[in-house]
Specification:
The structure holds two protein chains of two kinds.
Chain A lengths: L7 E4 L2 H10 L5 E4 H11 L8 E2 L2 H17 L7 H17 L4 H6 L4 H20 L1 E2 L1 H13 L9 E4 L6 H11 L4 E3 L8 E9 H17 L4 E5 L2 H16 L15 E3 L3 E2 L4 H15 L1 E3 H8 L10 H14 L3 E3 H10 L3 H4 L1 H16 L6 H14 L10 H18 L10 H14 L1 E2 L9 E5 L10 E4 L19 H6 L5 H16 L4 E10 L2 E2 L6 H4 L4 E4 L14 E4 L11 E3 L4 H8 L1 H9 L15 H18 L3 H6 L2 H22 L5 H23 L5 E13 L2 E13 L2 E8 L6 H6 L6 H8 L7 E6 L6 E6 L9 E2 H4 L5 H20 L19 H4 L1 H10 L3
Parallel strand pairs in A: 1-2, 1-5, 3-4, 5-6, 7-16, 7-18, 8-14, 8-15, 9-14, 15-16, 20-22, 23-24, 25-26
Antiparallel strand pairs in A: 10-13, 11-12, 16-17, 21-22, 22-23, 24-25
Chain B lengths: L2 H7 L6 E4 L6 H13 L8 E5 L2 H17 L3 H13 L11 E4 H10 L12 E2 L4 H12 L5 H10 L4 H12 L2 H13 L2 H26 L2 H17 L20 H11 L20 H11 L19 H28 L1 E2 L1 H14 L3 H7 L6 E4 L7 H10 L10 E6 L14 H9 L7 E4 L2 E2 L4 H14 L17 E2 L5 H4 L1 E9 L6 H14 L7 E5 L3 H13 L5 E3 L9 H14 L4 H9 L7 H8 L7 H4 L3 H4 L4 H19 L6 H12 L10 H14 L8 H10 L12 E5 H4 L4 E6 L14 E8 L2 E8 L9 H25 L2 E12 L11 H9 L28 E4 L2
Parallel strand pairs in B: 1-7, 1-8, 2-3, 2-6, 4-5, 6-7, 9-10, 11-18, 12-14, 12-15, 13-14, 15-18
Antiparallel strand pairs in B: 16-17
Helix pairs in contact in B: 2-3, 3-4, 5-15, 6-8, 6-14, 7-14, 9-14, 11-13, 15-17, 21-22, 23-24, 23-29, 28-29
Classes of the chains: A alpha/beta, B alpha/beta.
Chain lengths: 867, 881
C-alpha cells in the first residue's frame, strides 16, 4: 500500500471536484471519477483504450434515436424527449444496480417494460456500431482491469461524497481497495445551535431569510442558505437579495454586476435572451414560417438586423397583426413588406435580412452532418447581422463563448450521428441549450452561498439557514422509474422508504454541521392549503419552534408624502380644424366618458383594428349586405319598379346581384375558404328576398339616395358621414340605416342621454332640410323589421310616434334634444374636457383606452374621498 | 338507530355510503375510519382517501396527524405501536398518507404508464386550457377534411363564424360528456337515430296522451274531432292538416295536431282561453258558436299545456345535421388530443380520460395497479356527491375485480343536499345510483346520519321547515333531484335564547334608483347590531352580488374591517395594471394605448396639456420617437420635460441592455427604477405585485410575454387577504364557504340572479324502456324555433340547475351556528314579485308575505349617504419631484 503518498481526492463529478479543489486552494490533488479513470488508462498504454464514453447529453440523444428507430415500426408515441430521458435514467439504474437481463425479462409486466427492453436492444446496437460506451460501461471495464491488475493505482484514494453508493460504485471502491488505501472524506463537523422557525407561507419565509441575511452581513458573517426548492425560489430569492444588497442591479446595465451572494444553480443557455433569440431566428430559417406572436417578438427585437430600424419595423408588425392569424410564412412576410409603402426606404436592412432568411429556408432542406449545420448557422447568423456574433461587453462575450462551446460540442456529434435533417439538428441544438448552464463568472469571495440540497459544500460558515423544509419538498417525493418493474426496484433496493428517509436525513445532517448557528425553516400554508414540516425535521431539532406566522409587511417603502394628487381633467382647447375619420364614434365616446375620446381620438391611442383575413366575419358579411342592397336600389329605385318585377324575376335579380358581389369578395379574400362564401350566398339571397318583400309591404316609396357621402362641419370638426339610404314617401324624407348584426332597442338607438349618437346625427345632417323619420332596417334575420321613430307613423309601418315612446311632445322637440346632445359633445371635445367620468360601466364595454383611464384607482380614490 | 350507534357501525370493515347532513361531523367520521383502517393494514399506502380539493386533503391529513400525535384513543395508540413496529414513521412521514384529490391520483397513475397512455411521463396539467381549445377549433374550421360537415353546420347556424367558433370552444370543456355519445351517434344508422329519438318523444308524450284518454270520454273526443273538422273547413287555420281523420291515434305524428288544439284552448300563459275568437279559427256566427261551446265544455285538461314543448317527430334532415355537428365536435376533440400530445400538456378532463382509457385497455386493472405499486385495499371518498361521471368511472376501474369478501372496502361520504358543483360536471345522481347499485361489484350499505352539531335548534327547525317545502319530495336520477332529509339539532335547548333567525324583506318604491346600494346600506346597519365578538359571514351566489356591499363599506364604513375571500382578482389592482401597461409598452413601441398609460401612471404623471401638445398632431410616430423629438418636447412644461426625461433615461437603459436579463426581471427593474414601489397604496400590495411577477415569469419566454395568458391569469388569481388579519366579518361566495361555519350568517341579495350561460351546442338525454337504453341527442337552433328537441332537453337540464340552486341555498343557510339573516329587496312596480331564478323566488311561498307595498324601505331607518361614483372625477396621482 502507498500510505506515504499524498492521497487523491476523488469526487463523483467535475462540479464537486472543482469546489473541493477551491476549498484546498489547489494544494491537494482532486479529481472527478471520470478524469481519474481517464488518467488510469492514459498511464497504462499497454492495455486497450476503451471506446469513447458518451457524455450525458450524447447518451440521451442516442436513446432518442433508439426510440425513434423503434417508433418507425411501432405505434405513434409523442413526447420522445421526456421518454428518452426516463429511459436513459432506467438504463443507468440497471447498470448501477447490476440488474441482469434475465431479471429484467422475467419481470416484464406491462407494455412500458416491453417497449423499454426493445429500445434498449437498439440502444446497445447503436453503441456497438458507433463504438461508444456509457460511463457505467466504462466503470465496469476499469473494475475488471483493476481486479486483474492490468491497471495499478499508485496513490491512496479519499472518496468524497460517497456516503451513499450504488452497487457498481461499491464494486469500484472494493476493486480500488485491492490496490491502495481507501478512505472516505469527512468534512468539518461543527456542533451547531439549531433553531427552527415556521412561517405563514413561502413568501414570508423568503423575506425573513433575506432579512436574516442582512443582519448577518451587517455583522460581517459568512453565511449559507440551503433549500431543496432552489429552482423554484431562485427568482424570488435573488430579487429580494438584490433589493437588499444590490439595488443598483435593478438598473439593467448593471444587472450582471458582481453580487455578495452566489447561486450554484446556473441559468440554462436556452433561457438567456440572446441565445433564445438566435435559436428562434434559426428556427425561422429552418421552418420558413412562424407563429405570429413569435414573429412579432423576433421582428421587434434589436438583437439582429439593424437595430436603428426597430421603430420602423413596427409598421410591418402592425400590418401583420392586423391581417394575419396563426402561422405566417416568411414568403408572405416579404410580400407584405413589399406592399407596405415606404417600408423599403425606412428599413433597407430588414429587407435584405428577410431575404437571407428566405434563402436559408430554401437551402436547408437537405440533410447535413452536425458540423456542417453548425457552419451553416454561423454564416446565417452573420448574414442577418445577429448581435450574438458581435459581443459588445464582457457579459456578451461570455455568452458568445458559451454559444461557441455548444457549437463545438455539436460538431463533435459527427462521430455519433449521420447526416441529419434541419429539424433534428434544431431539436439537438435546443436540447444542448436547455441542458447547458451558464453563469457570468465573478472572481472573489462571496459572503452568501446559496445551494440546493443535492449539492455539496466543503466550506464552513458563521451561520446557515436551511429553508423550505416542508414535507412535500424534502425528502423529495419519490417516483418510480416506469420502465423498470417496481418489484425489481424494490428487490434491488433502488428505492425503499427507509433508504429514502436515511438519505434525506444524511443530507440535511450534512448541512446542519456547516455553521455554529443553524436555522431550519418551513412554511405552514401554500395558498389555502395547509402544508406540513418535513418528516425528518424532528431528528435534528430539539429547540422550541419559533412561529412567525403573523409577519407583517414593514411599511418602510410606503411614504405617501412623495405622492401628490392634482386636478387634471381638462386639456388645452383645440385650435385647428380636424377631420374625423372615425365618424360619430368620437362624439359617442365623448358623450359616454370625455377621457375616452380625448385619448382615442385626440391623442390617437387607437386599438389595432383587426381584419381577420381567414374568416368570413360579421363585419365582412354586413358590408356585403350593404353593397348588394345599394346596387339593388340603385337599379330599382322605387317600390313601384320593384313591384313591377314578377316574383321570379325579382328573385333572379337578387340572385344575380348577390352572386356578383360575392364573387368579387371571393377574389379579394383568397384566404377565406370559398365554401363559406357559397353558404353566405344562399343565406343572403334568402334574407334579401324576405327583406325586399318586407319593404314592398310599405306601400309607395322612392329611393332617393344610397350610400350617400355627406360632409358635416361642426366647430373645428369635419365629419364625413355615409348614409345607407334616403327614401321619399310623398313629400317626406326618411333616413334608413341597415343593421345586419345584433340590434339594440329603440331607446338605446334614439333616446339615450349618453352613448349612441349615430341615428341622431344622421337625422340632423342627412339632408339640408329636416328629415321626417329615421329608421333602422333589421335585415339579417328571417323576421325582417323596422325600428325607428318619426314625425308620423304613417310614413313607415312599424316606426314609433315621438310622444308615445319618448318624454318629448313632438318630433321637433326630439330633434332639439339630439342637437343639444351633439353640441354638448362637440363643445366638450373642443374645449379639452378629458375627465374620467361615466355613468354606466356597461357603456364602456368597447372602450379600448381603459388602461389609460386608471379605473381601479378611480374606485379607490372615490372610496377614500371623505364625505 | 342513533347517530352514535351508526357512527360506530361506519367503522366496520365493510363498504358503506354515508349520507350525512351539514354539520353532522362528516370529516371527523372519515378521519375515524381512516384511523381505524390504519390499525389493520400492512402499509399506510393501502388506504386511499380521495378528497374534492387540495385544501380538503391537507385538512384531512392535519386531522389524522393531530389524532395520531395526541396518542389518545384506542386507534391512535395501536397506530403508534404499529408504526414503530413496521417502521412507518407515520406520525411524521405524511407522504405515506395517501390523501389526495382524484386529479392528483390520476396524474400519478398516468405518470407511471408513459407508453400505455401515449403521453410520456412528464405530463403537465394546465388549468387554463382555453388556448388549446381555441387552437384546435380554429384548425378544424380551416381544414378541408371537414368541409362537408362545416358546410352543413355553418348553413344551419347562419354562417356565423364567430358564434360557431365560440360555441365549439365552449363545448371542448365538457367533452367528457359528449365524446362517447357523439362517437356512437356517428356510428349509428340514420334510421336507428330516428327511431330512438322518436321513441324518446313517445315516451314523453305517452303520459300526456294517457291523461287525455283518462280525462276525455268518447263523447268529448268526438266533439273535439268535430271542432277540428270545422276549423279545417273554415280555412282560418293553416296548421291543421288532418285529411280524412276520424279519430285520434295518439302517436307522435299527432303531436302537432294536439299542439294546435292546446293553442286553441289555452292562452300563451297557459290559462284556459275564455274568449275564443276568429284568431283561433272560429267564425263569428251561429255555427262558430256551437263549436266554441264544444271547446268551452271540455273538462279541466291543464296537463295538455305540457304538449306545447314537445317537438315534431325527428326526420332524416335533422339526423344529417346532428351527425355533422357530432363529426365536427369529434374532429375538434381529435385535434385537441394531438395538440395536447405535441405540447406535453393536458387539462383535467384529458388526464382522467387517459387514465380511464389506459386502465380500460388493460385486462386486469388491479394487476396493473399492483405493478405500479398501488396495493390499494381501502378507498375513502369525501364529498361523494360532487363526483363527476368520469371520476366515478375511473374509481370503478380502480376497484375492478374487488369482491366484498376480499376485505377490501369502499367508504363514500357525502351530503347530496350539498351537491353544488354541477358546473364542474359533478353529478349528484351518482350518489343515488351508488346507494342503489353499489360501487362496481361492491354493494354499499347506506348509513344515514341525522344529528347536526353546528346550528342551534332554532336554525335547524327553520331550515327543516324551508327545505321540506322547497326541495323535491323524492329523489330522481333523471331530474338531478334530491329529496329533503330533515336533521335534528344535537345542541342543547339553551341555545334558543341567544339564537336568532330573521327574514328581512325590503320593499322599495319605484323611484329608488339603485336598490343594491340601498340594500348595502341596510346590511351595513344590520352588521352593527351584532356583538363585537361574533364572527359574521356574508354569503352570496356570485362575487358580483357582493361588490356593492364591499364598495359601500370601503367608502362609508372604513373602520369596519373585513376579509373578502377570493372576491377581487389581481385585475382589480391599479398597480398591476400599471406594470402590465409597462410590459406591453416595453415590448411594443407602437402600442400607443399602453405608452400613454405609462405616461399617466403615478411614476410619470404627465398632465393632459403636455400630452395634447406632444401627441395630438402626430398619430403615426411611436411615442418613443415623439418624446425624442426636441421640437415637440420644447413645447411642453418644464415639469413634463423633466418627468419624461427621467422615463427616457430609465427605459433607454432597459432597451440597450435587454439582452442581458430575462424579460420578467427587466420589467421588474424598470418598475422599481420608476418608483413603482413608492406608489403602492397599501404595504400588503407588494404580495400581490409579487404574485403578478410570478405570473409574468411563468407566462414569458426570455424575449416575449404571452399577454393573453397573463391577462387570463390575473383574472383567475385573487388578491391576497391580509395575512395576519383575522377579521370578524368575512365575505364569501357560497361555494367558497362550503365546509365552514360562522356564528352569524347573512345571506343578502336574495333577489339577485346570475347571467345565463350560452346554450350548449348539443344536449343529451336518455330513457330506459324494456331494459333498453334509448339515447337522444339534440342540437341547438340558431333562432328560437319552438318547440324544439334541444329546448326540451335543455329544459330538463335547467330543472337540474334549479334543484342545485336550492341546494346552494341550503349550503348557505346551514353555515350558521347562532344567527341567520336572510335579506331580500324588491322594487315595487305594479306588483310585488321576485326575480325568476333567484333565491327569493324559491322562498317566495314561505316568506313572500313579508314583502308589502305599504311597508317600504323608506320606513326603515337607514343611513342615507348619497355620494355616487358616477359623479366622481378622480385626480391625477403622481410622484412628487
Amino acid at each position: 500500500m502507498h500510505s506515504e503518498q499524498k492521497p487523491i481526492y476523488l469526487c463523483r463529478n467535475s462540479k464537486e471536484s472543482f469546489k473541493l479543489s477551491q476549498h484546498f486552494n489547489a494544494e491537494e490533488r482532486v479529481l472527478s471519477l471520470h478524469n481519474f479513470i481517464d488518467s488510469l488508462f492514459k498511464k497504462h498504454l499497454n492495455i486497450n483504450m476503451p471506446p469513447r464514453v458518451l457524455n450525458g447529453i450524447e447518451e440521451k440523444l442516442l436513446w432518442e434515436s433508439s426510440i425513434k428507430q423503434y417508433k418507425k415500426s411501432s405505434f405513434d408515441l409523442s413526447n420522445i424527449d421526456s421518454l428518452s430521458e426516463t429511459a436513459n435514467q432506467a438504463n443507468r439504474l440497471i447498470d448501477q444496480f447490476n440488474i441482469s437481463e434475465n431479471t429484467l425479462k422475467s419481470k416484464e409486466l406491462s407494455e412500458e417494460h416491453a417497449f423499454f427492453n426493445a429500445w434498449r436492444l437498439i440502444f446497445k446496437k447503436y453503441c456497438h456500431d458507433k463504438d461508444v460506451i456509457t460511463f457505467n460501461g466504462l466503470i465496469k471495464i476499469v473494475i475488471e482491469h483493476i481486479k486483474n491488475h492490468d491497471i495499478s493505482i499508485e496513490h491512496p484514494i479519499t472518496f468524497v461524497g460517497f456516503e451513499f453508493t450504488t452497487p457498481i460504485e461499491e464494486l469500484f471502491i472494493e476493486a480500488c481497495k485491492t490496490q491502495t488505501d481507501v478512505v472516505f472524506f469527512k468534512g468539518a463537523k461543527i456542533a451547531p445551535y439549531i433553531e427552527s422557525r415556521a412561517f405563514l407561507n413561502q413568501e414570508h419565509e423568503c423575506m425573513c431569510a433575506v432579512e436574516w441575511c442582512k443582519t448577518q452581513i451587517e455583522h460581517d458573517k459568512k453565511i449559507l442558505i440551503v433549500t431543496p426548492q432552489l429552482d423554484q425560489i431562485i427568482d424570488r430569492l435573488s430579487s429580494l437579495l438584490d433589493k437588499t444588497f444590490h439595488p443598483e442591479t435593478f438598473k439593467p446595465s448593471l444587472s450582471q454586476e458582481k453580487r455578495i451572494y452566489q447561486f450554484s444553480l446556473n441559468t440554462p443557455l436556452f433561457h438567456l435572451s440572446m441565445i433564445y433569440l438566435n435559436l428562434r431566428l434559426i428556427e425561422l430559417g429552418a421552418r420558413g414560417f412562424s407563429d405570429i406572436k413569435d414573429l412579432k417578438s423576433i421582428l421587434s427585437h434589436s438583437g439582429w438586423s439593424d437595430s436603428q430600424e426597430v421603430c420602423q419595423r413596427y409598421r410591418l408588425i402592425n400590418q401583420l397583426e392586423r391581417k394575419r392569424r396563426g402561422n405566417v410564412l416568411i414568403n408572405d412576410l416579404i410580400e407584405m413588406f413589399k406592399s407596405e409603402d415606404g417600408l423599403n426606404e425606412l428599413t433597407p436592412f430588414l429587407k435584405i435580412h428577410l431575404d437571407h432568411i428566405q434563402t436559408a429556408h430554401n437551402e436547408w432542406r437537405i440533410k447535413r452532418n452536425p458540423s456542417e449545420w453548425v457552419k451553416t448557422f454561423e454564416i446565417y447568423l452573420k448574414n442577418i447581422q445577429s448581435s450574438l456574433l458581435a459581443p459588445k461587453d464582457t457579459y456578451e462575450e461570455s455568452i458568445y463563448e458559451a454559444w461557441k462551446k455548444i457549437t463545438e460540442a455539436l460538431s463533435s456529434l459527427d462521430n455519433l450521428m449521420d447526416e441529419i435533417s434541419i429539424q433534428d439538428m434544431l431539436d439537438t441544438l435546443q436540447y444542448y441549450l436547455k441542458k447547458t448552464t451558464h453563469q457570468h463568472e465573478h472572481q472573489g469571495n462571496f459572503k452568501i452561498d446559496i445551494l440546493g440540497f443535492h449539492e455539496t459544500t466543503f466550506e464552513t460558515y458563521d451561520a446557515t439557514w436551511i429553508m423550505n423544509l416542508n414535507e412535500h419538498h424534502w425528502p423529495t417525493p419519490h417516483q418510480y422509474n416506469p420502465f423498470i418493474p417496481i418489484k425489481i426496484q424494490h428487490n434491488s433496493h433502488i428505492f425503499t422508504h427507509e433508504k429514502h428517509q436515511q438519505h434525506a436525513m444524511k443530507i440535511l445532517d450534512k448541512f446542519t454541521h456547516t455553521a455554529p448557528t443553524v436555522v431550519l425553516s418551513y412554511a405552514k400554508k401554500m395558498g389555502e392549503e395547509e402544508i406540513f414540516p418535513s418528516s425528518i425535521l424532528h431528528t435534528v431539532v430539539s429547540s422550541k419552534l419559533l412561529e412567525d406566522t403573523n409577519y407583517k409587511y414593514i411599511k418602510n417603502i410606503l411614504n405617501h408624502n412623495v405622492i401628490e394628487y392634482i386636478e387634471d381633467n381638462t386639456s388645452i382647447k383645440i385650435d385647428a380644424y380636424q377631420t374625423v375619420k372615425t365618424g360619430i364614434k368620437l362624439l359617442e365616446a365623448q358623450s359616454i366618458c370625455p377621457a375616452w375620446s380625448f385619448y382615442e381620438f385626440r391623442l390617437g391611442a387607437k386599438h389595432l383594428e383587426v381584419e381577420d383575413e381567414g374568416n368570413l366575419t360579421t363585419r365582412l358579411r354586413g358590408n356585403l349586405f350593404h353593397k348588394i342592397l345599394e346596387q339593388f336600389w340603385a337599379e330599382y329605385n322605387s317600390a313601384s319598379l320593384v313591384s313591377a318585377l314578377g316574383e321570379k324575376e325579382l328573385s333572379k335579380k337578387i340572385q344575380a346581384i348577390t352572386h356578383k358581389a360575392i364573387s368579387i369578395e371571393k377574389k379579394k379574400s383568397p384566404r377565406i375558404m370559398p365554401e363559406f362564401f357559397n353558404i353566405e350566398e344562399i343565406r343572403m339571397i334568402s334574407y334579401l328576398e324576405k327583406w325586399i318583400q318586407h319593404e314592398l309591404k310599405r306601400g309607395d316609396f322612392e329611393v332617393k339616395e344610397t350610400e350617400k357621402n355627406i360632409p358635416v362641419h361642426l366647430g373645428c370638426l369635419n365629419f364625413n358621414i355615409k348614409i345607407d339610404r334616403i327614401d321619399k314617401v310623398n313629400e317626406s324624407k326618411i333616413v334608413i340605416d341597415y343593421k345586419s348584426g345584433a340590434t339594440k332597442t329603440l331607446n338605446e338607438w334614439f333616446l339615450n342621454s349618453y352613448g349612441e349618437l349615430q341615428m341622431p346625427f344622421y337625422a340632423l345632417f342627412a339632408s339640408d332640410k329636416p328629415i321626417d323619420a329615421i329608421v333602422i332596417g333589421v335585415i339579417n334575420t328571417s323576421k325582417p323589421r323596422w325600428v325607428g321613430i318619426g314625425r308620423d307613423t304613417d310614413l313607415l309601418k312599424g316606426i314609433k310616434d315621438v310622444s308615445s315612446v319618448t318624454p318629448y311632445q313632438s318630433w321637433d322637440e326630439l330633434i332639439g334634444f339630439w342637437k343639444c346632445r351633439i353640441n354638448e359633445a362637440i363643445k366638450g371635445y373642443e374645449e379639452g374636457d378629458a375627465a374620467v367620468k361615466f355613468a354606466r360601466e356597461k357603456d364602456m364595454a368597447y372602450c379600448h383606452v381603459k388602461p389609460i383611464l386608471r379605473l381601479p384607482e378611480r374606485t379607490l380614490q372615490f372610496e377614500q374621498t371623505k364625505q | 338507530m342513533s347517530d352514535n350507534t351508526l357512527r360506530k357501525k361506519a367503522l366496520d370493515l365493510s363498504s358503506f355510503i354515508v349520507e350525512a347532513p351539514a354539520g353532522s361531523g362528516k370529516t371527523s367520521l372519515l378521519t375515524d375510519r381512516y384511523l381505524k383502517l390504519l390499525t389493520i393494514v400492512d402499509t399506510p399506502e393501502e388506504i386511499l382517501a380521495i378528497t374534492f380539493t387540495k385544501k380538503a386533503a391537507s385538512e384531512m391529513k392535519a386531522r389524522i396527524l393531530e389524532r395520531i400525535k395526541k396518542g389518545d384513543g384506542t386507534f391512535a395508540k395501536i397506530i403508534l405501536e404499529r408504526s414503530k413496529e413496521k417502521g412507518w414513521d407515520i406520525e411524521r412521514n405524511l407522504s405515506r398518507l395517501k390523501v389526495m384529490t382524484i386529479d392528483k391520483f390520476c396524474h400519478q397513475v398516468v405518470g407511471q404508464i408513459p407508453v400505455l397512455s401515449k403521453m410520456g411521463d412528464k405530463l403537465n396539467i394546465t388549468d387554463t386550457p382555453e388556448k388549446f381549445y381555441e387552437e384546435c377549433v380554429k384548425k378544424v374550421l380551416q381544414s378541408k377534411e371537414s368541409i362537408k360537415d362545416i358546410n352543413i353546420v355553418f348553413t344551419h347556424y347562419d354562417n356565423e363564424y364567430e358564434n360557431i367558433n365560440r360555441r365549439l370552444i365552449a363545448m371542448m370543456s365538457t367533452r367528457d360528456q359528449w365524446k362517447n355519445r357523439c362517437y356512437k351517434l356517428t356510428q349509428k344508422k340514420n334510421e336507428q337515430i330516428i327511431i330512438e329519438s322518436n321513441a324518446y318523444l313517445d315516451h314523453l308524450i305517452e303520459p300526456i296522451y294517457q291523461q287525455i284518454k283518462e280525462t276525455l270520454n268518447r263523447e268529448a273526443l268526438s266533439g273535439l274531432m268535430q271542432v277540428i273538422h270545422y276549423l279545417k273547413d273554415t280555412n282560418l287555420r293553416e296548421d291543421l292538416q288532418i285529411k280524412d281523420k276520424i279519430s285520434f291515434n295518439f302517436d307522435t305524428k299527432e303531436i302537432t295536431l294536439w299542439q294546435a288544439i292546446t293553442e286553441i284552448l289555452f292562452t300563451d300563459k297557459n290559462t284556459r282561453r275564455e274568449k275564443i275568437t276568429a284568431r283561433e279559427g272560429f267564425k263569428n256566427d251561429e255555427e262558430g258558436e256551437i263549436y266554441k261551446n264544444k271547446c268551452r265544455n271540455l273538462p279541466e285538461i291543464n296537463f295538455l299545456t305540457a304538449i306545447k314543448d314537445i317537438p315534431p317527430p325527428i326526420n332524416e334532415a335533422y339526423v344529417i345535421k346532428l351527425k355533422s355537428i357530432a363529426n365536427l365536435l369529434l374532429q375538434c376533440e381529435k385535434r385537441l388530443k394531438l395538440l395536447f400530445r405535441q405540447r406535453n400538456t393536458v387539462d383535467f378532463i384529458e388526464i382522467i380520460e387517459i387514465a380511464n382509457e389506459a386502465l380500460g385497455r388493460n385486462e386486469s386493472v388491479s394487476e396493473l395497479l399492483l405493478s405500479l405499486d398501488y396495493k390499494i385495499s381501502h378507498i375513502l371518498i369525501d364529498e361523494f356527491q360532487d363526483t363527476s361521471r368520469s371520476h366515478f368511472n375511473f374509481l370503478k376501474k380502480i376497484v375492478d375485480g374487488w369482491t366484498p369478501e376480499a376485505q377490501k372496502t369502499i367508504f363514500c361520504v357525502g351530503d347530496p343536499m350539498q351537491s353544488i358543483y354541477k358546473f364542474r360536471e359533478a353529478d349528484v345522481s351518482i350518489f343515488t345510483e351508488a346507494k342503489k347499485q353499489g360501487f362496481n361489484t361492491i354493494p354499499l350499505e347506506t348509513i344515514q346520519l341525522k344529528d347536526n352539531w353546528r346550528s342551534s335548534s332554532l336554525i335547524v327547525n327553520e331550515i327543516n321547515q324551508v327545505f321540506e317545502k322547497i326541495l323535491p319530495k323524492e329523489d330522481s336520477i333523471q331530474a338531478g333531484a334530491i329529496s329533503y332529509k330533515p336533521f335534528i339539532s344535537a345542541k342543547k335547548d339553551r341555545d334558543l335564547r341567544i339564537s336568532k333567525f330573521k327574514f328581512h324583506a325590503l320593499t322599495f318604491s319605484d323611484i329608488t334608483k339603485d336598490i343594491d346600494i340601498e340594500e348595502a346600506k341596510y346590511v351595513c346597519n344590520l352588521i352593527d347590531t351584532f356583538s363585537k365578538n361574533e364572527k359574521i359571514a356574508i354569503l352570496t351566489r356570485s362575487r358580483s352580488h357582493l361588490s356593492e356591499l364591499i364598495n359601500y363599506i370601503r367608502k362609508f364604513r372604513p373602520t369596519l374591517k373585513f376579509n373578502a375571500v377570493e372576491i377581487d382578482a389581481l385585475d382589480q389592482h391599479q398597480s398591476i395594471h400599471d406594470i402590465l401597461s409597462l410590459s406591453y409598452a416595453i415590448l411594443d413601441l407602437s402600442d400607443r394605448i399602453h405608452w400613454l398609460a405609462i405616461l399617466r401612471a403615478p411614476w410619470c404623471g404627465i398632465i393632459l396639456n403636455d400630452l395634447a401638445l406632444l401627441f395630438q398632431d402626430d398619430h403615426i410616430s411611436t411615442v418613443w420617437e415623439i418624446i425624442h423629438d426636441p421640437n415637440k418636447m420644447n413645447k411642453i412644461s418644464t415639469d413634463g420635460k423633466m418627468r419624461i426625461q427621467r422615463l427616457i433615461d430609465i427605459l433607454k437603459n432597459a432597451f440597450e441592455h435587454k439582452n442581458k436579463i430575462h424579460i420578467r426581471r427587466l420589467i421588474e427593474s424598470v418598475w422599481i427604477n420608476l418608483g413603482g414601489e413608492l406608489c403602492l397604496h397599501n404595504p400588503n400590495d407588494i404580495v400581490d405585485i409579487n404574485k403578478f411577477f410570478a405570473i409574468l415569469q411563468t407566462s414569458s419566454s426570455p424575449i416575449a410575454i404571452d399577454f393573453e395568458l397573463v391577462e387570463h391569469q390575473i383574472t383567475e388569481t385573487y388578491l391576497s387577504d391580509i395575512p395576519s388579519a383575522e377579521e370578524r366579518i368575512q365575505f364569501f361566495t357560497i361555494h367558497k364557504a362550503k365546509g365552514l361555519e360562522f356564528d352569524t350568517v347573512i345571506i343578502p341579495s336574495l333577489n339577485s340572479t346570475t347571467r345565463a350561460s350560452d346554450k350548449k351546442m348539443i344536449v343529451f338525454d336518455h330513457f330506459i324502456k324494456n331494459d333498453h337504453t334509448y339515447d337522444v341527442t339534440a342540437f341547438s337552433e340558431p333562432e328560437n324555433k319552438s318547440p324544439h328537441l334541444h329546448d326540451l332537453i335543455y329544459g330538463i337540464e335547467k330543472n337540474k340547475e334549479e334543484n342545485e340552486l336550492k341546494r346552494l341555498l341550503y349550503v348557505a343557510m346551514t353555515r350558521a351556528k347562532k344567527n341567520l339573516h336572510l335579506v331580500g329587496s324588491i322594487k315595487f312596480k305594479d306588483e310585488i314579485k321576485p326575480t325568476s331564478n333567484s333565491f327569493l323566488s324559491m322562498l317566495w311561498d314561505i316568506y313572500g308575505h313579508h314583502f308589502n307595498k305599504s311597508k317600504s324601505i323608506e320606513t326603515i331607518k337607514i343611513e342615507t349617504l348619497n355620494a355616487k361614483i358616477e359623479d366622481f372625477v378622480p385626480k391625477l396621482m403622481r410622484l412628487k419631484f
